[in-house]
Design goal:
Blueprint lengths: L1 E5 L3 H13 L3 E6 L2 H11 L3 E5 L9 H12 L5 E5 L4 H9 L5 E5 L6 H12 L3 E3 L1 H11 L9 H11 L4 H8 L3 H14 L10 H12 L1
Parallel strand pairs: 1-2, 1-3, 3-4, 4-5, 5-6
Helix pairs in contact: 2-3, 3-4, 7-9, 7-10, 8-9
Pfam family, one: Response_reg
InterPro entries: CheY-like_superfamily, NreC/VraR/RcsB-like_REC, Sig_transdc_resp-reg_C-effctor, Sig_transdc_resp-reg_receiver, Tscrpt_reg_LuxR_C, WalR-like
Organism: Saccharothrix lopnurensis
Length: 214
């Protein structure tokens, strides 16, 4: 079996590589960011891509987005994602992108070597390996309106956005800084799964989500 590892932590990257080598699994490339992952999978066409969720430059969800793109560039590429957290928005897209050869494990599972190696082999062979905690969170997500994930302050900001107020006007209304409002707006876009679009403005789409709640 040939794998590509994408992990920004040198210690974890080397550790996983050695762990796999002990099991007779060859690492054909070990990289530290999403762009390098895409280049590696296109070059090597591995049996599996093992990907960390949070990588440079922002350490948010670059790895998961790169994994989704990798599956587009190399159809049916088995991908096993490792994360300390459940990134619901992109996890849904990754899992929905194909019913075979996909896994999402929390990093704590790597401590159980036998379980981890079994997951690697299962995903590489076209199976799935989804952490129980990941599944529980996604099941809850499926039953709720995305707006429900917003904090009270984020709901207040979104309500003022629905009234047509600019960030500056919202800041004045709530007696907070412009920077605080920008942060809240960014969180709102993220929680509602609103990606940049050339055809629709995210602010408008967020407001539509708010109005649909009423």
């Amino acid at each position: 079996m040939r794998v590509v590892i994408a992990e920004d932590s040198v210690l974890l990257r080397v550790g996983v590589q050695r762990l796999l080598a002990d099991e007779g699994i060859e690492t054909v490339a070990a990289v530290e960011d999403g762009d390098a992952l895409l280049a590696a999978v296109e070059e090597h066409r591995p049996d599996l891509a093992l990907v960390d969720v949070r990588m440079p430059p922002t350490f948010t969800d670059e790895g998961l987005r790169a994994a989704i793109e990798a599956r587009k560039r190399v159809p049916d590429l088995p991908v096993l994602v490792l994360s300390q957290y459940v990134e619901e928005r992109y996890a849904v897209e990754l899992l929905a992108g194909g019913s075979t050869g996909v896994g999402y494990l929390l990093k704590e599972r790597v401590a159980d070597v036998a379980e981890f190696v079994a997951a690697v082999r299962r995903v590489a062979e076209g199976g799935t390996s989804i952490d129980h905690e990941v599944m529980m969170q996604l099941m809850v997500r499926a039953r709720r309106n995305p707006v429900d994930a917003l904090t009270q302050r984020e709901r207040e900001v979104l309500g003022l956005m629905a009234q047509g107020l600019s960030n500056g006007a919202i800041a004045a209304s709530l007696v907070v800084s412009d920077g605080a409002v920008e942060k809240h707006v960014g969180n709102i876009f993220a929680k509602l799964g609103l990606e940049p679009s050339t055809s629709e403005h995210r602010r408008v789409r967020a407001v539509l989500a708010f109005l649909n709640l009423a």
